[in-house]
Structures are given as structure tokens and as C-alpha cells.
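1st attempt posting a full record on here, be nice pls
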Amino acid sequence: MKLNQTCNRSTQRLSTVAAAALLAALSAPQAQAFQIDTGNPDLKLSWDNTLKYGTAFRLKKQSDVLLDPNHDDGNRNFNRGLISNRIDLLTEADVQYGNFGARVSGSAWYDSVYNSDTDNTSAFTANALSVPYNQFTDATKKLHGRKGELLDAFVFGKFDLGGSKLTFRAGRHTLLWGESLFLGGNAIAGAQAAIDVSKALSVPNTPFKELGRPTNQLSSQLQFGPDLTIGAYYKFKADQLRLPGAGSYFSDTDFLGAGGERLWGPGFTRAPDIKGKDSGEGGVQARFHVAEFDVGLYAIRYHDFGPQLYIRPIQGQFAWVYPTGSVAYAASASTTIGPVNYAVEASVRRNVAFNSKGGLDFTGTADNSGNPLYAIGKSAHVNFSWLASVGQNWLAKEADFVGEVAWNRRLSVDKNESALDLISNGGNADYMSRDALKTRMVYEPKYRQALDGLDITVPVGFGVGLYGNSSLGGSQRQGVGDMSFGMTGAYLDIWRFSATLTHYFGRAGITKYDQTLKDRDFLSLQVRRTF
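the predicted structure (as C-alpha cells):
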């Protein structure tokens, strides 16, 4: 399907009702938050709604190198051309009376592409069991095509305790500590909240703290004057990464994520996931000032948000397993020198699960706590980041330059060392290494009042694995990365729009050390308005 061709699937068009609703909202004369006048200065009510329309297009045809039967559905399902045609609604409501209040937010979306047939013509290699080869599974269709969900739902308050102040939140909310900007999976924040991987892939260079998903927990903070703050939280639910649904555009593993039903080849079917218990997760922090530095100390116990694979040959099944009971200790410091803010965060993790081969569970008794099949040990992590305000140059009068470098090391393997997935082989890029280094950065020139009432920015993003293939997840791979070129705009501070071109680079292949998205460069367009 060419970009200049009309889409020939009628279900890929917005419904008449949805299109009418979008046009009506975008043409409304007011775009400010709806403040409700209660007649009581101590009672505040507000209600915001953001309506967004987005579309995206695939720019390359499928590569034969990437059409392995267990890794090809997300590739074969989309020819060049339209890959998303989506409308989103985000609604947020806040109420506050004195020192106490509540917040509720939710979102809903509809994407006509995921409510139609796919472009897949390979019936023999399709992994779905519940639907024909050229259709999305119900789980994938729901996740990407038509879903509504509750986001925040919590109460909050504050108390004055003499010279100290105590604040709390109870209910569904997101909590992320530390100093990480983009590579939070390597930092203390990566142990606190599951992230939306689909959003991270579809919206390049999204800050890590915008990817965290809310969960049920109680958090509090006690401030002793201006120089010392103590915080703590306890989670009431174990969470998992929101991975791309099997067969969706950014899915590179056909039996992983929502809608992953079968392991092609042996024909194994998916057993229920083994998830962590809804208990045993929490942490404490202390933040204080030392000279010109803001310093933080952290201790956290958590369950892993990413899964390991178990194969059960006797039962003819496979299962995704989420490790439990990891511990992380970290320290951070930040300071500002001239126009640049610098931050560093260092941490160690214990009882952490490493990248492991699929564990063969012949008895069906392996679990995610006392009897695991994956490798477990200790690791070390360092993140260094910067936020710089760049003065006038030949490109623009002002610009932002932000970035981060993340390093990690496998310190020791304390259990199941033989399960490690491809142990280091002299630095060969095909193998897991003890150390890994990655970076991500964004340079963003700004053009205020480019036209009357119009502000424009031109973000250019770049991320790559600089050295090694990490033992702690597939996000740090040597020579594998992406580049993005975008333009964002704000008109009268009411309309927001963006256009972004994303290019993937690195050696094409289907292993966790390859660029599995090498042939999936895409162009995305968005327009939104808050009212």
C-alpha cells in the first residue's frame, strides 16, 4: 500500500460518529480546563479533556531476514502504508477541599486499523489459534484497537506536624524516584513501576517518567524543613510491562504479549502467566542537600516487570514467568553548573533475574520464587544525565540538549548459571556481555512565534547501544538503535501537533541482540487539543 494511495479497507476510516466528535471538539472556541465554580473558596473542582487524532505509515517493505515463523506476524500483518488510524480521549478530574482531595483520570481509544483484517498472506506461519491467519486476536484488537481504562484513582492529603509536613497518596498512582531521564529501566525508577513499552516504541524519546503506569499503592512523604525529605511507599498489586500485543506493528515475538497464543514449530500453546504476588513490594527514600548538590538515597524491594520463558514439553505448553523478590539500593546526586543540570545515579541489585534461555520444566513445578529455572544474581548500574539550555547559534536562538548514558554490569550469578542466554564470547556482538553501555539524547531547537501565534520545535533524537549486550534485558544491544526527526507545534497554546520520522539501525535479525525492527521505519502524525 503506497502512501499516496487511498486505503481500500473501509474499516480503516474513522467512523462517522468518531470523526464528527473529533471535529466538534477541535473547533470548540474554548480550550482551557473546565473550572467548576463551587461558590466555596476552599472547594476546588477541575475537569480537563484532551482529544487526539494520530495516524502512522510504514515506510519499508518486509525484510526476508526478519520473517522467522515465531517473529514475523507483526511484520507480515502490515504492508507499506497505513499502520495506525487512531483517536484518543484522555479525561482528568480533580477535587480538593482544604488539605485533602482526590484525582481520577481515564483514557479510551479506537484505531480502525486494528479493527480490520491484516495484510498477512502467510497462513502457514501465523501463530494465532483463536482467529484466522489474517486477523488480529481479540486480545491484540482490544489492546490496540478499542479500549478504555482507568488511570489515576487516588485520594491525597497533607498534615502540618509542627515544623514538618506530611503528605500522602492512596490508590492508583505512579511513583518514580531518582534522576533518570530516558533510560530509567537501568535506574531505581525501573524497579518501581511497569512501563508502557508500546508507547515508548510508538512515541520516540518519551521521557521515562511519562511511560510509568499507575498501580494501587500507598505513598507518603515527610518534609523536615527545606533540606530533608523522607519518603516511603507500599504496593498492593504486582504489575507487568505493557508489551505490544502479538501481531501488532511493534511486536517482534509472536508468542509474547497480549494475544500471544502459540509457539510455532512444536505447536506448544500458552499456559497462564506466573505472576508475582500482590504483596512484598515497597521502598524508602531520603533526599537532602549537601553543598550545591541535591542527594538521594533509596532502598526498594520489587517484583520484575518483564517475563522469563518456561517450556513444558510434557504438557505441550509454554508459560511466561515474572521473577519476584529482587532488591535494589541506590544513591543519586544532581547539581546545576551554568546552563546545564547534571545528575548521576548509581545502584546495585540483588536477587535479580538475568537474560536466560527458555527453562525446560518437565515436572511443571518450576515457579518464580523458590524453584526458578532462570539465572539469578547481582548487578551494578550507573546512569549519567544532563539537561542543557543552549544559547543562540546558527540553527536557532535557543535550544534544549538533553541526554543520558547508562551502564550496567553482571556482578555475579548466584543461581542457575547454566541458564544464562549465550555467555560472553570475547566481546563478540552475538553474545551476552558482562558490561553494557547505552545512550539516548535529544537536541531540540525552538522557534518561538515562527508565525503569529505559532511556536515550533524541531526535536532530533538518537539512541544506541554503545558497547555490549546487557545481561539485564533486551534494551541495551551493541550497535542497535534508532534515530528520529520531528517537528512539533503549538498554535495559540491551544492546538498541538507533531510529525515524526523514525529510523531503526543495526544488524537485522530475530535474536535479542539484533535490530528486530530494522524494516519498520515509520512516519507518525498527530494533532490534539485540551478543553
